[in-house]
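User: Sequence recovery, please. Input:
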């Protein structure tokens, strides 16, 4: 059993890397990768403290990088790279999280209010980045404080869940809620180039989360990628099968991961058998 998509509190996960490794050990996994957002700090911490005290299997270096493709903010996984080179290449590429959240928060508030959505006074000033890694889940909760706002949201799921609202509307060029982020997110080609320069492989994660843009992203990115995440908790068997066939036909790597975050998104660690 393996799991190549795990998050720690070095990005938006709840658990420390030690806890994640312990949980992977308890689940009897043989191969894992910690893929924090936009940093590989966990690997430097492991190098210092020693990972094998917590996990006896193999650990592949990993990272999940934000990238822009055809007007859409997506993620690209990098695997098996040199962590020193990666850290060097990422320097200055992304804005500091606080600054990024502030920019996105202001843009999103402006868009929401222009559509007619009511937000609490001081909504921007009251944002606390220590409580919300991404400003989107904070803003979504603020929006839900006013039941009148429900009428402006096109679908129930987007009203209920911040991540669905983000994918389906905020990050979707076909939605009136769409917000451009190409000023703060680097292009996908550049991100793939960085992964390759650091000696790694580029893999497209959770493609069906991109909702109506999934097929466009998958087929548009295919010739740039080294692999596709074919197994993911929310994928149907038919979706996984389709991706598997696509990978085999195009000679691409097949991966799977739980996207474990702990806490709010407690996808169980390690639900995948090695193909
Ligand atoms: Zn992830």
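Assistant: Recovered sequence (275 residues):
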């Amino acid at each position: 059993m393996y799991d190549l998509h795990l998050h720690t509190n070095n990005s938006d996960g709840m658990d420390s890397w030690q806890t994640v490794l312990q949980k992977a050990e308890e689940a009897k996994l043989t191969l894992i990768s910690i893929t924090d957002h936009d940093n590989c700090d966990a690997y430097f911490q492991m190098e210092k403290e020693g990972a094998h005290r917590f996990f006896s299997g193999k650990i592949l270096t990993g990272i999940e990088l934000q990238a822009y493709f055809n007007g859409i903010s997506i993620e690209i996984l990098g695997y098996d790279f040199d962590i020193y080179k990666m850290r060097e290449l990422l320097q200055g590429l992304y804005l500091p999280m606080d600054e990024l959240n502030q920019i996105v928060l202001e843009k999103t508030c402006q868009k929401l209010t222009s559509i007619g959505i009511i937000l609490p006074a001081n909504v921007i000033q009251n944002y606390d980045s220590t409580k919300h890694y991404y400003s989107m889940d904070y803003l979504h909760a603020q929006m839900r404080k006013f039941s009148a706002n429900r009428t402006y949201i096109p679908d129930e799921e987007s009203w209920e869940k911040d991540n669905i609202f983000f994918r389906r509307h905020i990050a979707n060029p076909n939605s009136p809620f769409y917000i451009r982020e190409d000023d703060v997110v680097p292009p996908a080609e550049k991100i793939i180039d960085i992964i390759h320069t650091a000696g790694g492989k580029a893999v497209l994660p959770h493609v069906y989360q991109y909702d109506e843009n999934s097929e466009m992203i998958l087929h548009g990115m295919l010739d740039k990628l080294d692999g596709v995440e074919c197994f993911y908790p929310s994928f149907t068997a038919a979706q996984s099968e389709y991706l598997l066939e696509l990978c085999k036909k195009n000679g691409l790597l097949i991966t799977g991961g739980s996207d474990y975050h702990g806490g709010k998104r407690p996808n169980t660690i390690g639900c995948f058998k090695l193909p």
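The first helix runs from residue 17 to 26.
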